[in-house]
Structures are given as C-alpha cells and as structure tokens.
C-alpha cells in the first residue's frame, strides 16, 4: 500500500465532497483543499443556486481545509500548483481541465464517473440510463486528460440496479457505496504508476443535457418511453420541472406512472396504455 497522499478534491456539492473526503481519510490520505465550480461555464456569474451550494459547502468544511472557487480553469491551475499535492480526485466538475491543471500535482488527476465508460460520457450519465430503461448502471474511475471522460480506466464496477419504481435516494446510496469501494483502489493504482486500460471508442456514447422538449409528454410515443421519461424526472434533473402533460384539458406534472393496470388515470399512448398513479397541477413554461 502507498504512503498517505496529499489530495485535492473537486466535486459538485456537499454530498460529493463528503463522500470523497471520508473515503480518502479512511484510506490514509490527507485531503488538503476542496474545489467547487461556482458556475457551469467559466467566466460566468454565480447563480443563486450556486451561492446556496457554496454556503452549504462552507458550513461542512473540516477545520483547516481550503475552499477554492475558481472563475477560470487557468486560474485554478495556478492555484493548484501552490499546494504541492500528489493527486487530484474529481467527481462532478463541469469544466475541462487544461494541461496545466492536470500537471499541477505529482501524479495527475483521476475522475469518478457514474457509468460503465465509455458508455454515457458526459454530465448526467445516470439520468440517461434511467431514460433509456437500462436495468443497471455502474461506476468508473479513470485518468483525466483534456477531454471529458476519455482517459484510461483504472477501475470500474457494474451491477448497480436501477429499479423500475425508482427511489432516488436508494440509487444514489448504491452509487456512493461502490464509489467508496473503488476509490481507494484507484488511488493505489495511480500511485503505483498504473497506466490504465484505454477506452474502446466503438462503445462510446454521450450523456448530454436533456433537450427542452423532454419536459413535455407526447402521447404518440410508446408507453415505456413515457414511463422512463417520468422516471428520469423523478430521479431529478437539476431543477428542471416536468414532465408536463395535458390531462382532460388541464396541465399536470406526472410524478409516477405504471405500465400495468393500477389505481390512477389510464392514458392511451402510441403503442398501448399507461396508468398515471401520481400527478400534480402545473403551469408549464412556454415552449
């Protein structure tokens, strides 16, 4: 086992930070700084939602640990160089890291990604797995390069079940459990100089942000497709509302559906029927 490493953590919020921090500490490593992107794009103003996240992170920071809120990736690279860290661990960061940032630590940077790469590269892999009706997902930890989610794979594990009647908290808990299992091994491999396994580009797919029309239900589509649309929103789409549907002339948000007969409103789809078991009145945005 390698000696304890000095680690910089980069993540999307309190839950990701806490998971990385506790896992690294339990494995004998020392987190020295936490990095959070205060905007989805560089050189952008801080939104109210980001400001709330930053406040939550600040309250959760361990004593003596720095919090970096870079405005640009170039500024982040300069800041990281001063820490003389051994490795960067990333879990959910919206910017591409330039070569200067990747080389700002002794070993480089590794990334935690919630899919079986190279499938579902991009910002919301689990949401696309739900949308596509995948029965399971997985976790990959890989070396980072200057492109999103393309570096050599250090460790990965599948078999994380996605239930049909999806419970968001349960699925995130299962993902966190596998991340906590894999991360120490990935850091160990990185410290030992492992190059990792190249990704097979023939199997690659991309999990980008959902298109605007995805928040509206089209009853001409298949029942399974609509059911998965509802499940994807139940899993959470980062503040995006929906899906919206017209029921007897009224706009509703569909919260839960069933593909077999159930208590609720029966609707006709392009290839059969679906039952709406939970919904709420809604005022949809203009299309």
Describe the structure.
It is a single chain. This protein is 29% helix and 25% strand. The chain has helices at residues 14-26, 48-60, 73-81, 99-102, 125-131, 168-191, 223-235, and strands at 6-11, 30-35, 66-68, 87-91, 108-113, 136-143, 153-161, 244-247, 250-258, 265-269, 272-281. The chain has a 7-stranded mixed sheet with strand order 3-2-1-4-5-6-7, sandwiched between helices. The longest helix is centred in the middle third of the chain and has 24 residues, at 168-191. The radius of gyration is 21 Å and the shape is elongated. The chain is built from 7 helices and 11 strands. It folds into 2 domains: 6-203, 3-Layer(aba) Sandwich (Rossmann fold); 212-281, Formyl transferase, C-terminal domain (Methionyl-tRNA Fmet Formyltransferase, Chain A, domain 2, Roll). The model has no long low-confidence stretch (mean pLDDT 94). With 287 residues, the chain is α/β, with parallel strands linked by helices.
Short descriptors:
287 residues; alpha/beta; Rossmann fold; Methionyl-tRNA Fmet Formyltransferase, Chain A, domain 2; 2 domains; seven-stranded mixed sheet; four-stranded antiparallel sheet; 7 helices; 11 strands; 25% strand
Could you give a quick summary of the protein structure above?
It contains seven helices and eleven strands. The chain is α/β, with parallel strands linked by helices.
């Amino acid at each position: 086992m390698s000696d304890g490493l000095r680690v910089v953590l980069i993540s999307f919020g309190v839950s990701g930070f806490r998971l990385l921090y506790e896992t690294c500490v339990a494995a004998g490593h020392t987190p020295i700084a936490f990095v959070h992107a205060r905007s989805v794009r560089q050189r952008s103003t801080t939104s109210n939602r980001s400001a709330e996240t930053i406040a939550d992170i600040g309250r959760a920071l361990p004593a003596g640990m720095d919090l970096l809120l870079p405005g640009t990736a170039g500024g982040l690279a300069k800041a990281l160089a001063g820490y003389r860290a051994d490795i960067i661990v990333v879990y959910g960061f919206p910017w591409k890291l330039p070569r200067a940032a990747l080389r700002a630590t002794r070993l480089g940077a590794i990334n935690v990604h919630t899919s079986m790469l190279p499938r579902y590269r991009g910002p919301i892999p689990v949401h696309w797995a739900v949308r596509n009706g995948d029965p399971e997902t997985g976790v990959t930890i890989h070396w980072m390069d200057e492109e999103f989610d393309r570096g050599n794979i250090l460790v990965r594990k599948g078999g994380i079940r996605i239930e049909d009647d999806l419970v968001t908290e349960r699925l995130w808990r299962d993902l966190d459990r596998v991340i906590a299992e894999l991360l120490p091994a990935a850091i160990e491999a990185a410290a030992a100089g492992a190059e990792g396994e190249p990704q097979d580009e023939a199997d690659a797919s991309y999990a980008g942000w959902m298109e605007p029309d995805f928040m509206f239900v089209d009853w001409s589509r298949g029942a399974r497709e609509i059911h998965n649309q509802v499940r994807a929103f139940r899993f959470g789409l980062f503040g995006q509302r929906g899906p919206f549907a017209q029921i007897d002339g009224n706009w509703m948000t569909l919260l839960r559906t069933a593909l077999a007969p159930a208590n609720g409103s029966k609707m006709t789809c392009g290839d059969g029927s679906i039952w709406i078991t939970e919904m709420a009145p809604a005022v949809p945005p203009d299309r």
